[in-house]
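pinning this so it doesn't scroll away 📌
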Amino acid sequence: MKKIEGSPKNLKQLLQNTKYSIHYYQREYMWQRKHIEELIDDLTSEFLEYYKTDDPRQAVADYGAYFMGSIVLAGRENAIIDGQQRFSSLTLLLMYLNNRLKTIGQSYNMIETMIFSESFGTKSFNINVEDRQDCMNAIFNDTDFDTTGAGESVKNLYGRYQDIQDVFPADITDDMLLHFCDWVAEKVFFIEIVATTEQDAHKVFVTMNDRGLSLTSTEMLKGYILSEIKSDSSREKMNGIWKDKVLTLKKDDDKGDETFIKAWLRAHYAETIRETKAGAVNKDFDIIGGSFHKWVRDERDKLGLNGSDDFELFIKKFAKFAEVYERIRQAETTFAEETKYVYYNAQVNFTLQPQLLLAPVCYEDSWPVIIEKINLVARFIDVLIVSRVTNYRSVDYSTIKNFVFNVTKDIRMTDIPTLKQKLEQQYINLAFDPAAALSDLRLNSFTKKYIKNILARITGYIEEQTGVASNYCNYMNTQTKNPFEIEHIITDHYEWFTAEYSDQDDFRRWRNSIGALLLLHKSINASLNDAKYDYKLKKYCSNEGNIYTESLGDLAYQNNPKFKKFIADNNLGFKSYTSFGKNEITERIAVLVDLVKLVWNDDMFM
């Protein structure tokens, strides 16, 4: 092996005006939302440990650093052999920070040179992969990008940027944004390992992953638990159980074992969580998010690990709850009537769901009891999400983790009657008022996916109640050639409506109201771009939409006895409209309020 060099470098030193390549055989960007949530939470929490109100930017020089691990590079091309997931994700974060600074009229001089550099008058991204260029340009310019037909990396990159927009905490306010940029650029460190040849770089990578550095928290936890079991035969048996369950958990997700163990330990054993203030120290919840094997060892008394039998039982519990977690994961990705609320919550990326669903489950529970508990908690999560987002309150990881943790402790290992009682009180505490929330709910970058989900749920509910199979899954599916999109009933031409709306802002508020929105196929939506209401209405009623869309016209009420009965039974104000303005929007909001009360209610506790 030729010369190998390793040195600590911060993100600015690594990225500024420096090009990197990713070879075709390892070029997929695979990170999912949960990885982005953990990265953003780790970085922002670390920064807030040091930041103090009124700190000048120069004070950041004395803040503590954050270590991101190693990056292994090869040859003159700076080929990334190990580290592209983190590098690519940090580039997305830099793009987010750059775009946010633009919106508040500020700039950070070095940030663009960390994202791309210029040679002979041509700009290109520092992490240079040809088939990502269009997507990266759209992200950099903060414009929409159609991922239809795109490769896996492109879809993941665009999705993770949207996740950063969702999960970046409100705690990092505009007045400290430049401080945070300084800290990310100057205080986030890697160990850069550079090999002369690609072959040598791969040898370094293999060596790192074949020796001590390869042991994950899962493997070290297994080693510790097994070492405390006295009987050789029992230890061998428990080792087999552990291996089988870990392999199952890693089947579709290389980090699936770690994700499960974190959720399980937090759900059943964590008692404390870091306070949301500068200088606060990590507690159970936060430590489990990192080296959970150390936490288990340090907290063995809390976990009741006193003798050999206790450690054996721990592995049996691991196996049981791994099965429950697998069932939850399956329910999140594949719609099933039995666990539909778990699926609904996953469609809006509520990643703390497994922790909450595991919390009330007991080791002794039968599968029917487990499913009932999962459904009760999933129904509560469903209401929690809609109650917050309709009031413009985030449900992202960093914002809601403390609340979720407190609910987790409240419902931990309870029987079904107690669980219903506790969830009912949590429901009451939400004080969800659909009438107040929906009257002010409008489409914007934050509410877009939640409004789409609300419209899809309501439309699916009407379909179910009128004897038609719910089309919810199709309404939410973005991977088809012609997905459903949010349609504005009122065309974006203020000049056509000056008699009704006082100014552009008044027009936008009413046009973006949830009462003026529908779901339509993308192709139809695009074809109606500049059409007036009378033309749109013909399309809405031509069986190309759905029952909620069709309800604007007369045909929905003709020869449709089940729909008419549904309206009468629930005293709903559905009616057809020949024109559509403020009065009609107000009436549609009233209908939506009644529908939301039907879909999101407290009957789960009865």
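📌 and the second one:
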Amino acid sequence: MPRSTVLTAAGAGVLVAGGIGGYMLWHQHQQSSEQDEGARTAATTLATAWQNRKLDQATYVGTSPTGAAENFRTTTRALGSGPIKVTVGKIQRDGNAATADLQVSWTLSDGKQFAWTDPVPLAKSGNTWGVKVGDKSLWHPRLTADGAFSVDAGGSATRGEILGRGGAKIMANQNVYDITIDPVKATDQSVRSLEGIVGSSPGSLGAKLKKAQSSGSKGTIAVITYRESDYAAHKGSIEGLPGILATERQQPLAQTRTFGQPLLGTVGHVTAEMIKKDPQRYREGMYAGTSGLQETYDSTLAPTSGVTVTPRGSSDVILFGQKPRNGTSLQTTLDPKVQAAAEKALTKTGKTPSALVAIDVKSGDVLALANSPSYGINRALTGRYQPGSTLKVSSTYALLTKGFSTSTKVPCPPDIVVDGRRIGNFERETLSDPTFVEDFAHSCNTAFVKATADLAPGDMRTAATALGIGVDWSKQLGVGPVFTGSVPVTTGKTDQAAASFGQARTLASPMAIAVMSGSVARGSFIPPALVTNPKPGGDRTPKPLNAGAVQELHSLMRKVVTDGSGTVMQGTPGGDVYAKTGTAEFTQDGKPLVRAWLTGWQGDVAFAVLVEEVATGQTGGTVAAPVAKDFLTSLQTG
């Protein structure tokens, strides 16, 4: 009677008796072990061949390796060419027949894992074990011998939206039209016509067409994605062009192409670089976030398409299925009204790069983060600029927390010599017998050099940190990269002198300066937040500031507007404005230039404005202040 065994990873212990009976038992065990090993070898060979898609390298009983390989290709063609993992599980043998459980995991074209257990029959023919071909499929237990898989990727899902305060839709799903070229049907003439319609360089799309045709590629060539209104303007010209396709789908869009850029980012075709970096996630033909928040939170926003695997001709028999799932919307603190006002105000700077950040004073939430131009770097978040006299807010906080009185008379000469180096006021202005209140209002550099001379090397850094400059609040913000600023410990008298008015080695982003003003306005430092769901990490517990110093700064920053370097802000609708101007000097290609700043708050809105490059002679009060005034005015009247 044949012996039935179950093969597992570990072999069983064997009791060997003495004499003839013991020999027979040992001999039978040897024969059984050889049978078991033969069955396992046949199963392992099939698993390896399957995983490598070289099914003609396995051993079969009842068909040829070539026939089995062809049957495999026909049966599994719909599953695609994704990675396959096949491992051998339990093997149960009964004499010269056995069954091996193969654990199969097949990656479908959209990245989903179709996994099943395939009980493969094995048989011994002569002295060789092989895979037995019968009246059932070798490739899945619920397929017939001549059956095949069918894959339905039907069912669509939408990408998550980007939301702002109160659930306002910052980027909402809207119809878009992808214009592509079918290299099989397109003609040279139709592609030349398309170049003129979409504004491509003459010959650029033609070159892509020739490349695709010479390589035999049948995949469509992406050209441009139009908003619905833009497509409507070009529809008549595009329709009817041979091989030019317009495919409708939905995609999150902001109110204009430039709104919230580059912060919000864009959605588009995945690039070859993205696929190379993460082939398990990205595949050719996919759409994904390619920049900004859309890229950072792509795994949250991206939808999951539906897919079902069935036997061909039996759609009611579900072998694998997953319903489509919409992406999750991203919740931010942005206020579309405030963002629109910020972007409108920046148009005043023309082609000069600029940025404007607005923060809610009560909560520390970011209300607006605007950049001009809207393409390129996110200078509002990542820019590294000398903050100029806006840093005098921090320097003054250092003085006030050390017992300094604003009623102290601090001379404001046109220039001053520190360790043999001459340091002057921006326009060599001077004040007659001023108190520190007047020095602050008129932004006198030489007075700040004198006033801060006795501070310890780390005092200005400590003050800046207390106000939020140089503190790592990137986790609480929920977006990166971000530059939070740097006010180093000073290394000598001249370094300390220049640092007191935001030059030397001091650096900040517009975001960092807005955080500083928000801290002074509320009387505590709260790490700013921009993305709130998914919930970012980090603690946002307010850290109280020195109340007396904060009260003094309120008076000083109001004086800047009523009787100082920020008088442009007078008459701004919405109430009293508290501000500090900044003019940071630098040299580029041997040419002296300045960066113009204004920071402060009005009511519950703290802000910082940077105009990146202006000619010498212009100041924060004459260049950045008008931008800030336009911004605040729009909030009241827009």
